[in-house]
Amino acid sequence: MRLRGLSSFGRLYLGVIGIAQQGDDFGVGFGRGRSLTSTPASARRAKVSSTLSNRKVRGRRPDLPSGTSKRFPHRRPSVVFYRGHRYALDPQMGSSKDMLIRKAATADAEELCSLLNEIILAGGTTALETPLTAAEFADWFIDGDFPLVCHVAEHGRSLAGFQSLSLYGDPPKGYADIATFARMKPKISGVGRALFQATLAAAEEQGLEFINATIRADNVGGLAYYTRMGFEPYDRLLQVPLLDGTPVDRIKKRFKVDAKRRPSFSV
Question: What angle do CA 177, 127, 145 make, to 5 degrees?
Fold first, then answer.
């Protein structure tokens, strides 16, 4: 990319452009961390400001994703929109600009089933211990009698994870069970948080009062995830045996669905 309008800095071809503010230094940053510091800071400020103004970069270009900065289109969006709701993205979501959250379709079953079976075979986290077929997966999570909604996170050309709400097991009135699974390899940061934003909006539309999560007591990552999302413990199932007879407690956490009380990731 050629940086036009800055001829005094020479003819420079940049791979990545970024503006860096360090004390009184204000320069154009490069992919390798270099910056133009030979010109006085005040002159650089004026030059960059004038160049951006002349190029009329204020506002958002229609060809950029919603939330993307027109001035610096390589920056990730700060918000996403789902069914009329506005959500702030976690600034630590390293790949959020490439992630799309949408409802799952039956055609996704085979890829999602493979993702889930990898987690099942690894063991130690999910209460599921027997791999599923694609047909079983679709029935359990997408289009069977019990699923209410299932969202997937698309990253590039693959699915990075999914999250579902279900009435399986006849939960109390106003409750639905949540299940969350993210691809093990490669691990994509922010999948669970992005999925929960869409799940919560769907729960409000369904008129749910609580979202229930039943988690193995030895699933440290799962317990931490639901705590970060705002779930609170309310019950514990003692020594539920695995298929091999090993007793493992189940911890039940719930999230109160209330549009007036959003978790910290929403605005």
Answer: 40
Is residue 180 within 8 Å of 160, Cβ to Cβ? no
> In 10 A of CB 173, how many CB atoms?
7
Phi, psi angles (nearest 5°) of residue 188: -105, 120
- Can you tell me the distance from the alpha carbon of 219 to that of 46, in angstroms, rounded to the nearest whole number? 54
Pairing of strands 175-182, 210-216: parallel
- Model confidence pLDDT, tens digit, residues 87-139: 444 443 334 557 899 999 999 999 999 999 999 999 988 989 999 999 999 99
Nearest to 17 by CA among 66, 69, 92: 69
- CA distance readout (Å), 176 to 31, 67, 213: 47, 32, 9
The closest of 257, 239, 259 to 247, measured between CA atoms, is 239
pTM of the model: 0.64
The distance in angstroms from the start CA to the end CA of the chain is 35
Report the alpha-carbon angle 216-88-32, nearest 5: 95
pLDDT digits (tens, 9 = 90+) for 159-194: 999 999 999 988 999 999 999 999 998 888 899 999
Please give the Cα distance from 262 to 240 (Å, whole number).
33
Give the tokens for residue 26. Answer: 């204000």
Q: How many Å is the Cα radius of gyration of the chain?
A: 23
Six token digits for residue 24: 């009184």
Residue 84 tokens, joined: 């009329």
CA 76, CA 160: separation in Å to the nearest integer? Answer: 18
Contact indicator for 35, 28 with CB cutoff of 8 Å: yes
Q: Kindly state the average pLDDT of the residues 137-157.
A: 95
Does residue 120 sit in helix, strand or coil?
A: helix
